[in-house]
Design a protein that fits this description.
Elements: H1 9-36, H2 45-52, H3 57-64, H4 69-76, H5 80-89, H6 95-104
């Protein structure tokens, strides 16, 4: 049997808004917890704008970490030429290569794939 309830649209809209606000509060608290554990980080607006403009995620993260291509190559074991190919020529790199780069940058592979 279906239980039904009737209420004014304004009251329904108010309840939906309260539920959405509660979900936002939970999401913020989860982010704060992950941030405190070092599982999340803030990035500057310039980084986000460049990302939205389609720049290479590898290049953005490498620069955000303050590394040159040579330094990232040493940390990751990936050839600097291959890093340049991924950053500047849109090549994707294998999963194994992306894993090495992500590990060197303290990221998940998903952070390097648009």
């Amino acid at each position: 049997m279906n239980d039904m309830i009737t209420m004014p649209r304004a009251e329904y809209d108010r309840l939906v808004e309260i539920a959405e606000d509660a979900a936002d509060i939970v999401a913020i608290e989860e982010f704060k917890t992950k941030l405190a554990r070092g599982e999340e980080e803030f990035v500057p607006a310039e980084f986000v704008n460049r990302m939205l403009d389609g720049e290479s995620l590898l290049k953005l993260w490498r620069e955000h970490r303050g590394l040159s291509q040579n330094e990232l190559a040493k940390l990751s074991g990936v050839n600097r030429i291959q890093i340049g190919d991924i950053e500047d020529r849109g090549k994707t790199g294998s999963v194994a290569t992306l894993k090495k780069l992500a590990d060197a940058l303290d990221l998940q592979i998903d952070d390097l794939v648009s």
